[in-house]
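To: structure subgroup
Subject: Chain for Friday's discussion

All,

I'm putting the inputs and outputs inline so they're searchable in the archive.
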Amino acid sequence: MSRAFLVVLDSVGCGGAPDAAEFGDEGANTLAHIAQACADGRAEDGRSGLLRVPHLDALGLGAAVRLASGADTPGLEAVPKGLWGAATEVSRGKDTPSGHWELAGLPVPWDWHYFPETDPCFPEDLVERVKQAAGTAGILGNRHASGTLIIEDEAEAHIKTGWPICYTSADSVFQIAAHEDHFGLQRLLDLCASLAPILHDMRVGRVIARPFKGENGQWTRTANRKDFAIKPPAPTLCDAVQDAGRKVHAIGKIGDIFSGRGIDSMVKGPDTDLMNHLADAVADQPIGSLTFANFVEFDSIYGHRRDPSGYARHLEWFDDCLSPILQAMRPGDLMVFTADHGNDPTWRGTDHTRERVPVVCAGLKGEAGLIAFADVAASICAHLGVPKVGPGRSFL
């Protein structure tokens, strides 16, 4: 009996989405633009030269980018030895839940609620609910902002007043940042948990706790982030595998994205820890299991901050770690590398970009072509021999 590993490189898109113009993202291409920046000497901070991701490229990464968008991919020119293609999303969003749910066989059946780009941006009745739940006389932030920048702007006032820092982005999110010591980590988690049903009723996809530490202008977000996401309204790949009596292991924020539904075990941490967890899963997860992983720092640290050099460094670090993991795969294992959306670090603004995503697989060979996000779930179900979930078709 086989095992499956679904590994999401958060935001590593490959351009070419047919509806990108509707999102203001026509021409965005995360992977191609990073590769081109490296080739042109525009991504030299902490690295140099062409983008070097030989293991992913050998599986078909460069070929997937060219298929998706027709873009030049300097440095990504290997003849594919894996199973490769590029996937197109149908959900009306370019956010984390939409991408992950659809990869798991569930296109989002509704339009998400987004807060307006005004200052303040939250409705007064919601602000009152936050104040009541927090036991404070006010909130800080109340605007669209980068998570790291708003902490820099508001941390001193937060410590002085005790008010939570509330902000959003172009995604359907309500985020609360608070100091782990001065405000309290459990208090922050309890606050987010109490507000989540209210925000979910508004079709806001996630309430996110963003704890941080530090003093005197030196602030660092901790690994204790927690997403309170809307529960999937229908079965997903995780449910299909679990209902068949198999184990589902979540690495990174997968457990939060699916609200624990269909998940047997989970581990979290920074990407360096998650890579060790992935290696452990390849070594230890049982026959017939699904391991579902998300590596978030491509998106959270480098994409939103529009840092092509950092993004390239992280891609190269990730690829460099793959050799022992791929070698440790057992006969019959399938490992799928893909993404949930784009976040082109050369693009305007700081938000996600609407793109197709690469789908490259270790353990099988061939060309999948242009496929749907939901085809990933159908293919993993076929590989594991469990009943198919969702509208997708297997590309195996």
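Points worth raising on Friday:
The longest helix spans residues 180-201.
The chain has a mean pLDDT of 96.

D.
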